[in-house]
Amino acid sequence: MEPVSLRAEAGIGWITIDNPPVNALSHGVCAGLADAVERAAADREIKVIVLRGAGRVWSAGADVRDLDTAPSPLPALCAKLAGLETPVIAALHGSVLGGALELALCARLRIAAPGTQLGFPDVSLGLLPGAGGTQRLPRLIGAKAALGMMLSGLPVNAERAEAMGLVDAVIEGDLDAMATRLAEAHIDGTAPLPTWEERAARPEPGEWLSAIEAARSGLGRARLPAPVRIIDCVEAALLLPEAEGHVFEATAFAELAATPESVGLRHAFLAELRAAHAPGGAAPRALAEIGLVGTGAGAAPLAAGLLSAGMRVTMIEGDSETLADAMSEVAILHDRAVESGRLTPAAREEEWARIDGSVDLRELERCDLVLIEDADGAVEVGRLLAALDRVIRPEAVRAVLLAGGEIGALAGASAHPGAVIGLRMAAEGGRLAEVVGGPETAAEAIATGLAFLRKLGRMAVAVPGGGAIGAALMGALITAADSAVAAGASPYDVDRALAAWGFARGPYQQADLAGLDPKGWLGAVLVAAGRTGHAEGKGVYSYGAGQRMGHEDDEVLALIAAAREAQGIVARPVGMKEIQTRALAALANAGARLVEAGEVARPSDIDAVAIAGIGFPRWRGGPICAADQAGPLAVRSELRRFAAGGDDFWTPAALWDELVKYGRHLGDRAG
């Protein structure tokens, strides 16, 4: 079936995009649209064109992967559509994002179904709307509103878009029927469709320039180039003739696409997209009802998140009192959501109708996935898994929230080990989650675990080898940081250096929040002195009551100096560049070892985990992407330089030799 079709009926040319799952505007789809537009324009019987999308999504925009292949045909397509004498109506629904919204901007009229989401997320990829969006949008809705949409990257709903003038009408009911009536009114002359020139706003230069100035002031010291260039292009829309404005935009887009920041952001986007799919392409099982069995303090947030995602939830506890407390916690979370405006009272009642509680496991018989915790040990988990076998369907997924056990050993307690998975989830507020399979775990169960975690808003990754990927990367980062501190840096120097490089938090700030590990060099020194981390009020940093961010402490520096002296280490100056190099080399080497060991499905999963789990700067793409940009030869050389000090931690993984020998990169293995 062709991804674009043209159907002529009663003077109306219906052009439909049908490229599941999200009607992405790939090069092939753009070529099909260009052909359909040309045929419709040449057909004298067609007086109005209606542009529509099949399925749940009108179009999610251009395919990011096409940016690395050939120049996009979308700008030429948009120019063709905007220049047609035959008027175009865009009938929008679902999501209309990026290049898709640029396409819709070229129509004479835009109607939308209620709840339609319209936006320009290009900035999140280090780009700007490059098919005329920076020129047409401000001319339609004004510079201030246009800048707000493009700089934030956030979508607006159809109702807000109508108020802005981006959408002409929000249509309850049949969208195609309304498009037909509008087209017929134009054809019979009762209500001719306006031209683009008639629709364009008449800018007041002072207001336009004020919006530009305010946007530039709001950027401050921008780290990324895309927001700066978006503002430049909106300014060009005022100062340059329209044709020259489009040339200015095209040049800015090409320059941004070549920046390492955009390369990193696009890589991160695709890494997360790949991570969402189970190895082998297995499809998830349907998820409608979820059971939570004794999941501790995290039960209430889990239940609330699942209810928000439309699931039905059954909570099981060992006694009525604990169950009542858990249900009460969910109710408190609901009340807070209503008070903050995140949930309406009616929505709260609807969600509350989908939660049940019991002390009887038999209430789980309809569940598609049941989550249990292994905090009480392998024996208790085994007992629960065996009990679940007598209640839930054989294919229902048994998900064990891992606290330390190995899922392979735990799964053996079930008569259906193929349906048993392990989950590692970051603490509340964290995004990372890992799905662990045992030797007999079915691919469909892994896929279902990934889908379950995505419903909770987690960045989930499958871990076929069973190891803890996030923990391995964090361990490598702390070891690299410790090596810099032992050599002469302060831990505060380390955190400042990596924050300057782009990390969301320094490694020692993260370590304090998690609790210091006494197995590390600095952790051993500080834990022995009673400094265990944030929970105790002092770790690498010291904390006042209720403070999440700590302050530097001279006692820590004195303890470090004493430890160096005891070990015969003569401190030397360690600069910011060396600290950053050590961190990247350590993370890249840890990633290479994980790839060698088969712990990840694809190297790009390491990047997705690093961004979500240890605060690696998204715009650098992740440690594998950053290492590939630096080059395997350069990374291996740095590792060998650090390893010359005699620490086996820095020994390069054997994989680097293979990559250097054959001129390849780690990312070449990404599937």
UniProtKB/TrEMBL annotation:
Catalysed reactions, as listed in the record: a (3S)-3-hydroxyacyl-CoA + NAD(+) = a 3-oxoacyl-CoA + NADH + H(+)
Gene Ontology terms, MF aspect: (3S)-3-hydroxyacyl-CoA dehydrogenase (NAD+) activity; enoyl-CoA hydratase activity; isomerase activity; NAD+ binding
CDD domains per record: crotonase-like (cd06558)
Primary localization class, coarse: other
An annotated GO BP: fatty acid beta-oxidation
SUPFAM superfamilies referenced in this protein's UniProt entry, alphabetically: 6-phosphogluconate dehydrogenase C-terminal domain-like, ClpP/crotonase, NAD(P)-binding Rossmann-fold domains
Domain 3-hydroxyacyl-CoA dehydrogenase C-terminal: 581-664
Range of residues in the leader sequence: none
Localization terms from the record: Peroxisome
Pathway: Lipid metabolism; fatty acid beta-oxidation
Domain 3-hydroxyacyl-CoA dehydrogenase NAD binding: 290-463
Keywords in alphabetical order: Fatty acid metabolism, Isomerase, Lipid degradation, Lipid metabolism, Lyase, Multifunctional enzyme, NAD, Oxidoreductase, Peroxisome
PANTHER family noted in UniProt: 3-HYDROXYACYL-COA DEHYROGENASE (PTHR23309)
Protein name (database record): 3-hydroxyacyl-CoA dehydrogenase
